[in-house]
Amino acid sequence: MPSPLSLASQEWVFRALALGVGILALAMLVFAVVVIVLRLKHARTARDWAQREARWEATLLAVLAGDAAPQSLRDDVRQSERRDFIEYLVRFARRVKGREREQLQELAAPFLAVLEPDLSHRRADRRARAVQTLGDLGFVRYQEPVIAALDDEAPLVRMIAARALTRPEHPDQVGLVLEKLHLFPTWSPNFLAAMLADAGMAAVPALRAALGDPAREAPVRAIAATALTYLGDLEAADVAVTVLGGRHDVPDLLASSLRLIAKLGRPEHAAAVRPLIDSGHFAVRAAAISALGAIGGPDDLAAIREGYDDASPWVAMHAARALVDAGDVRSLEEIVARRHSRASLAIQVLSELEEE
Amino acid sequence: MYELGLLLLLVFNYLVFFYFIALNGVYLFTSLIAFREIRQYVLRLKSLDLSELLGSAGMPPVTILVPAYNEEASCVESVRSLLSLNYADYSILVVNDGSDDATLQRLIAEFDMVRAARLPTAELPARAVRRTYQSRLHQNLWVIDKENGGKADALNAGLNHSTTPLFCAVDADSLLERDALIRIVRPFLEDSKTVAAGGIIRIANDCDVVRGSVRRIRMPRNLLAQFQVLEYLRAFLAGRMGWAALDATLIISGAFGLFRRSLVVEAGGYASSQTSVATVGEDMELVVRIHKVCREKKMPYRIRFVPDPVVWTECPESFRELGRQRDRWQRGMAESLLRHRDLFFNPKYGRIGMFAYPYFFLLETFGPFIELAGYAAFITAIAIGVASPTYVITFFMLAFVFGMVLSLAAVGLEELGFRRYPRVGDLVHLFGLAIVENFGYRQLTTVWRFHGLVSAIRGKQSWGKMTRRGFPKEA
What is the pTM for the complete model shown? Predict the structure, then answer.
């Protein structure tokens, strides 16, 4: 009887294994060649790029300094180098503002058309790059496609478009971005707020309108409140107070409005804040206590002290800092003296005060 | 009886063959997926200027937790690297886990630390905190000095004292690149479902380090360290990148990971002797538990891998220390997976339960046993004359060439995206290592991993000691 293992020494098994070895050896060779080709390609690209940069840099600096005519630099750009030249200008554009940025936009203007086909390219990264570059260097001329990109199917392209539309140079577009904010459901609210705030004070009316509009989605209003806080818009506190009187089932909106009031509110806003220190959501209680610490009066100290004993350590932390803001350092010293179970928090906040 | 023995040998030979095909098939599959992902990632990076998009405002505050046990040789350099990060809002919490050496004293002296109070904001069980210190030179640098309880316990103590929505766990013997935090935080900004993200770990042996920053990247001189360079490229660029693309990440290295703090606290923190049963694989155990918590709560979530935030680490250069490390890694994986065996082919846990867990459990955890037994079976089969030596040699050639293909694919992924080893000589060196590692090194790691598996089954808990050289300085 033949051994069962003789199967393993049959011709077809050996042939299959040998074929496997051959295929894999070929794959190995292909990978090795790919790696070498990639290395050579990257080395060549880097060398070419360095040469081009060296060629353009001196003329560009002379143009920016007013010592050379823009055309002298444009004449130095070959037909095949138009994309690279735009890329080069984009790198500079990110580092400069004002007149210098305008000069770069003027320099780029004759070449930007080369990117137009990319706006409808099948690859999202190509569309994103085109929107970013045209937004940076040719916004006036390419405003429409940049706005249209807010509705692109790719989230990356939508975000690039939103970023391009919230620049300080054209704050009037913030309203448009606010309208489309629901298209960015996964992005961090703080990030979106910072992006909107980048547009500067001219964006304030649109942001205030969004915050005060009960018909808007609560997350959009919360983002608007945070953006207004970043911008330090004092009048927004009045709008935030109206939010506190509205729906109480959206903790994020309430908390961001309370944070706005804590930073920018006035004593007359305290009455609207007080009911929220008993909120069922810890983030709202914490923000309400901070707000009272900032704008409340002596009558609010007892409620803030109570907050120190809240079940949530976060509320206690806000209460400790609110006591400092309200000028009631003595309460914290007493907490330390009677060895309260959270005495270490009072010590921490008092030491922060000393550092200041 | 003899016939039965032969039959068993035959069945086992086929089992080894199918194990080999399945394991390498998965490696190849994840490598190919990683190729697509890295290509897209690079294009995305090119189309989206990071510093432009991520201004200082809107970046979530991060606490960096650095558990340190007897790290006097490298803790100062590590903290320096953390202090020089390019990130707007972060604090560093070094948790001295009852070190017997001068770790605490070195930190106090170097950064002018003084006693300061810091409030716990969570109550994860952890060994007692003795003192907390704050630096007078850097307001965002804190040290928590606590009783020894192990790495997981130190991380839990740090979690109790962190106040930011995100925390980053970093090993005390590691160096973070300046942009590492800004890069790893990106998935959290882009997708609020992100609950954890891991970065890549690279080998710093023989690189030049200046004030906590890797300035000149070089291949290590030590051969064992060189093998590990290649291994890390395979593990991170081909393995973790591929698994993350499949939304099936089961491990984020303890040396560098960013997590949503509230979720980790809700999940009970890291597994330590104080919380449940300690494991030396607390990093993998946490990720597995995060999957379970999120799936059981039907919470939408994502765990990501980002290939370009880099943490540099010193790897073992002696057989003894490398063996201990591999033993520990295997033990950690086995403990984590055995603890959560209810995931095994459980459709409730989606692709984690149906694909990732069974793969790691069957092929990675028990792989070393099958491999070693396979060597023994082949030798037996040849010795008793029932297997053709030609067949066996061809099979080993297949294994050898498959291994090389996977290694070259990993080098290709590195070349495609990152090119951290700029010298052509380094590239040739990596090619050479892909050949040489098949003769001895791979078999040795299998033995160490097998030992780790046995230790896990026997319930061994010690970490083993690693001697640190400290990071090399610029000449």
Answer: 0.83
